[in-house]
Specification:
- Two copies of one chain form a homodimer.
- The first copy, chain A, is built from 14 helices and twelve strands.
- The first copy, chain A, is α/β, with parallel strands linked by helices.
- Chain A folds into three domains: about 5-50, no CATH class; about 60-165 and about 305-335, Rossmann fold (3-Layer(aba) Sandwich), CATH 3.40.50.2300; about 170-305, Rossmann fold.
- Chain A has a six-stranded parallel β-sheet with strand order 2-1-3-4-5-11, sandwiched between helices. In chain A, strands 7-6-8-9-10-12 form a six-stranded mixed β-sheet, sandwiched between helices.
- In chain A, helix 2 packs across helix 3 (about 35-45).
- The longest helix of chain A has 17 residues, at about 305-320.
- At the A-B interface, helix 4, helix 5, strand 2, helix 6 and helix 12 of A face helix 4, helix 5, strand 2, helix 6 and helix 12 of B.
- The first copy, chain A, binds a DNA duplex (30 and 30 nucleotides) through helix 2 and helix 4.
- Chains A, B: InterPro entries: Cro/C1-type_HTH, HTH_LacI, LacI/GalR-like_sensor, Lambda_DNA-bd_dom_sf, Peripla_BP_I.
- Chains A, B: This is LacI family transcriptional regulator.
- Chains A, B: GO terms for molecular function: DNA-binding transcription factor activity; transcription cis-regulatory region binding.
- Chains A, B: Keywords: DNA-binding, Transcription, Transcription regulation.
DNA sequence: ATAAGTAGCGAAAACGTTTTCGTGTTGAAA
DNA sequence: TTTCAACACGAAAACGTTTTCGCTACTTAT
């Protein structure tokens, strides 16, 4: 087992100083052709690689990006990571991942762990619990310490930082408008409680679309699911709620769901009730994940382009990190949503 | 913007030495109660946290685990990461993720980037291209440099390291046996080319089950899909291949697919051909992902317990890292698979 | 022959810690 | 009064780099 070799060891072996070795390896003109050759040959032979940690300490930058997301077993978030990783790698950065599991304290702890020198900046999406408690001190503190943050998807306006979002309202509006144009008269929305910002905005888009077409919204058509239901155990009660939605609205002919799971579950209930899609009821979801693509019928959905979100977030962060001038000017990038039409709509 | 404070700054402010500050913060008895109080109060006020990079350099360990996986937008792999992260975090480790995208060179580059001091050890699953080329020098080299590796799922015997696998053959055997016991007489397998080890072992399990029940395997019932097809673009040709499989075997009444996507696609084709599940044909997949759970009919599948695999891998690695004695004794842990029965079988 | 310039190299500082080893001061014992 | 221990603290090394500065010896020009 030959341990990693250091400059010091090379220096000792070749009977030169550490500085000489360092310079020789970096092709400094200070060093004679002779010694340069000798050192480089030796280094190559022993497969020398500079120690990243030492470099990080010296340069006071780690070339590493910290990601904090609520969960990773989730198509959208893993797409985003994939996008971040792609551009990070291309620009010589590594990516270190922390999971908050939607918990405020885990989010705080994870950020503190990483903020102490391990990374140069954060890309994150806020945990639900944090959104609920509206306690954002950990974000402001890290920013105050000079560590940049880029937020994506779940963001809050209070915090001054770069953001990458989709226009949730616009995306929802597109979807609901599509349903209306397809002839739906009684369109329901299955959404989350309002403190989840994306749920709020998508609901807003739903209402805007209705208004555009002079349709009066009906309270009974708006189902705000307690988001605990997303944890798969509570799927049953979600189903029940949706079933009640159908029973209360016999003429229901269109559903807009703010996420894949709600949409898929709605399809399941509809099928159970003997309804055909898209003939009897048309359904559109949000987030183009693997479920939408393989559902029966395949699900029309609003794609958020998670990969692109990740790429953009990484670009913003790295640009910020590598910017010379220290002006604090923050940007909010909106990634266009796209309505992907499949078989669940006419 | 108040930058992170260092020992040196505290020392200067309080007019003591750096060593005194360090000792005071670590409650050394060398330091008088008085100074200790003073230092700790000051440190707390300025929210002092030791710099991780400096600690890493000093201790020559980073408390960080490197993960290299072929892709992250994949239910199984993200489950594994989630498991790794859980125990890593509990034991004070961070997790840094590299993606190989199934490419040999990206795998090598990523490992080299991380091996130079950034991490203490690797947890990885081998890229397909690497398996194909059978070039494992980067693994042996990192191990030789004293950096431990734990492989999971896609492993190779040549490399001496800890491994966490599922008994693919056994899992497949369970599934196929189930189909036989459920009355299937003509059972097909949809699998990958042999160089993907999991594909090979699952095929082997299929054959073993048949043999157990004295059923002769038929070549026409074994569909080895070129794994390029997994990249979602090639879904169409996958469908065609499966359709041909049905046409060539009119009495086909059971299908075992070595992954979710193959299973779902088989269901799609069956439905197109007017076959009912589970009445006309029963289907079992491998990997219990989100697709299986929400397919129609819901898909019976072999669960690999990705989370548990990740947890176990992390335990093995950290135990190895924190072991005092340097004995090189490696373990291969087999995580039991479980047949999750749903509606696609009788 | 002397001054000046240059080529080639090494010493040392710096990044932020922890830890070992001194060292000076105090108080008590001899 | 001398000696010794205990106490409280500081200096310095170490982790592995990069970089600035200084030094020596040689070459060239005057």
């Amino acid at each position: 087992m030959k341990k990693k070799i250091t400059l010091k060891q090379i220096a000792r072996e070749l009977d030169v100083s550490i500085s000489t070795v360092s310079k020789a390896l970096r092709n400094s003109i200070e060093i004679s052709e002779d010694t340069r050759q000798k050192v480089q040959a030796f280094a190559k032979l022993y497969n020398y690689r500079p120690n990243n940690i030492a470099l990080s300490l010296k340069n006071r930058k780690t070339k590493t990006i910290g990601i904090i997301i609520p969960e990773i077993v989730h198509h959208f978030f893993s797409k985003v990571i994939s996008g971040i990783e792609a551009v990070a790698n291309k620009r010589g950065y590594n990516v270190i991942v922390g999971l908050s599991n939607e918990s405020f304290s885990k989010e705080v702890i994870n950020m503190e762990m990483l903020a102490n020198g391990s990374i140069d900046g954060f890309i994150l999406s806020i945990a639900k619990e944090t959104l609920q408690q509206q306690d954002y001190h950990h974000f402001t503190e890290t920013i105050n310490q000079g560590m940049p943050i880029v937020m994506f998807d779940r963001v809050v306006n209070e915090i001054k930082c770069d953001k990458v979002i989709v226009d949730d309202a616009e995306g929802a509006k597109k979807a609901v408008s599509k349903l209306i144009e397809n002839g739906c008269k009684h369109i329901a929305i299955i959404t989350t409680k309002d403190y989840v910002s994306v749920g709020k905005y998508r609901t807003q888009g739903y209402l805007e679309a209705l208004e555009n077409y002079k349709i009066n919204p009906k309270a009974s058509l708006i189902l705000k699911v307690d988001d605990e239901l997303l944890s798969e155990d509570h799927l049953d009660s979600l189903e029940k709620e949706i079933e009640i939605l159908f029973q209360k609205n016999k003429k229901l002919d269109g559903i807009f769901a703010v996420n894949e799971l709600y949409a898929i579950t709605a399809m399941k209930v509809a099928r159970k009730l003997g309804l055909n899609m898209p003939e009897d009821v048309q359904i559109i979801g949000f987030t183009d994940g693997v479920l939408s693509k393989h559902a029966v019928p395949t699900l029309t959905t609003v794609s958020q382009h998670g990969q692109k979100i990740g790429e953009k977030a990484a670009e913003l962060l790295i640009n910020n990190l590598e910017r010379e001038d220290e002006e604090d000017t923050y940007e909010t990038v909106v990634i266009e949503t796209e309505l992907i039409e499949r078989a669940s709509t006419k």
